């Protein structure tokens, strides 16, 4: 029977040039029913980007025709980059003239036109990421348009007079895209909703949920399926599980957390340490292709906001049945690991378990016990002291070992938005990351590595969390900045293997967080892939995501694969082919949804910043330059974790020019120079609520 695998083999081994449908039929000697199936398979493979159909109707493998499939990362000026799906390939620059109307996050096929410069042109859009836009409705002499709020969309959307509904000039609207932009015709759409202008930060969050078309609720049939799982509960599962309810077990999470993915247990053994990492057994409740599974796969990840969460799973699962709450029996998937005194893993065991968490600890409380040695907190949790101290010891050993192998230790400050009980904005501060966070981080890394290396050794198809080495072209700016800051005695061209030692050398300097952010931006984005190429940032040869199945879909998939391997011992060839066929799409879609969640969180942070600063126009603040462009300076304020932009036209004390060599702005007459890290006093000149921008002056 004709299959996709057979066709892939045919194109790789027997197609020395583009071939027609008839040639494929003749060479494979296909029967009439197989020909009909061939038509359908060719159409699917063209849509998936596996092969390409030329204008003459001939078929060929994409890589043989100098074509690359990937997703488009768009810039507001129209140009962008195609990030290849195939691991190990460098990004391809797409000039604005060659984007053929592709939008941010669209799945595309691009032709490489200059291999040395990695420049190309998009020739086909396989899958659109956006079906609608949020923006401002504008009435101009030439007609009606929607100006998108999303800066990466490089066009205004034309609205026909009969498609504008009741929208008026200046309204914030949601428009459905009816015709996408192309070389031949401009984009057009229709108004489907008029949004109220936000009157509070909470209203702003509601608008962002609309802007990204995020689901506010689960479909009724998904909720009903989730409720039915209460009957399943712990029934008929105990005898297939290891009962470790007597093991001292705790969770450590933030104060506001409700979905407890992971719990930990530990003890000293003669050879070193024994660590148990218990992960919520979501796979027991959510089977492949169930209603809940399909919805979770579509969502890909939970999305977090300052005042709420849009979960991947219904709350019946995420906050109850699967959540490892204290003092109740819960089903888990346990990774039991032995480590020697140097932190090397000497043994590992995986098994479904039933646990009962003794205590729901918080990061703040664990820090008080281990770092601050707070007597009141230590007395309150005296029965946990020994276990917590052993956890702290093992964390230090594991982290030291990870750093020695070249793992990047970013201690990047992250902003935290604080709201009061009424939803009013109180403050934007630097989020605390303490020793308790590091304990959980190290233990989860250890469990993820153990699962990944186990599945890889068995040669079982799985999803890996990969992180490729950075593009050498993106490292030039870092070298320039380090040279201009003169914080290192000798500065040579930075290469990826230098990152770990560079982070150590700048630790404690005023410029530490700025350079760390620059290094982070120069790195490729970690993603999910069925092909393992290692994780550069962690210096890990084999890594996956296993420890958060409540909020990340790839973790749930890895759970199922591990359970299948442990139960069946050996997967059939048919099952292996099934996994090989579905995992690439799951990995690609999960990576895309993760990127969208990141975009949502950035949009919320930008919105919260302008709401927080809107009453401070005219006030002056101390700040520090964190980025320099030909157009001006990006500055972070000292008093609040807020960033604004000082445009060069607002720097009225001189004529400023951009020095690309030192990445600085310098005054022609007064010789004043602004480089990354420079401190200065700025004034809040304007807060643009609609564009979510803070405009600074000096």
TrEMBL record:
Major localization class: cytoplasm
Gene3D superfamilies with a match to the protein in the record: Nucleic acid-binding proteins
Keywords, ordered alphabetically: Cytoplasm, Exonuclease, Hydrolase, Nuclease, RNA-binding
Keyword Nuclease part of the UniProt annotation: yes
Subcellular location: Cytoplasm
GO MF, one annotated term: exoribonuclease II activity
Domain called S1 motif: residue spans: 618-698
GO biological process, one term: mRNA catabolic process
Coiled-coil intervals, chain numbering: none
Classification via InterPro entries: CSD, CSD2, NA-bd_OB-fold, RNase_B_OB_dom, RNase_II/R, RNase_II/R_CS, RNase_II/RNase_R, RNase_R
Catalytic activity entry: Exonucleolytic cleavage in the 3'- to 5'-direction to yield nucleoside 5'-phosphates
Protein name, entry field: Ribonuclease R
